[in-house]
Design goal:
The protein has one domain: Alpha-Beta Plaits. It has 2 helices and 5 strands. A hairpin with a 5-residue loop joins strand 2 and strand 3. The chain is globular and about 35 Å long. Strands 4-1-3-2-5 form a 5-stranded mixed beta sheet, covered by helices on one side. Helix content is 24%, strand content 35%. By secondary structure, it is an alpha+beta fold. The termini are far apart.
């Protein structure tokens, strides 16, 4: 697929709360891979988690719903999202360790 494919979307999110040190990145990667999404997730210096996910709109929406809850040890206070232009990437969803 490419970015002109109408049934593909990309969403960015910044998640705040108790989201570092609780398996949030692993949870997000596992959920995104189960949904066959591409993209990434990383910890931010301010204690938040940032992610971008790309794929079919319904699958991206399912991931965003999942990160609103997070893994059992997490406490999600807020999820700020914004739409991005799809890149057409088909790489497996991954954890990023650097900006």
């Amino acid at each position: 697929m490419n970015d002109s494919t109408p049934n593909r979307t990309r969403q960015a999110a910044r998640v705040t709360g108790r989201v570092q040190g609780v398996g949030f990145r692993h949870f997000t990667r596992q959920t995104a891979r189960r949904l066959d999404l591409s993209g990434w997730v990383r910890n931010e210096p301010d204690g938040s988690v940032r992610l971008e996910a790309e794929g079919p709109p319904d699958a991206v929406e399912q991931l965003m719903k999942a990160v609103h809850a997070g893994p059992p040890a997490a406490r999600v206070d807020e999820v700020d999202t914004d739409a991005r232009t799809p890149t057409g990437s088909t790489e497996a969803f991954r954890v990023r360790y650097h900006s």
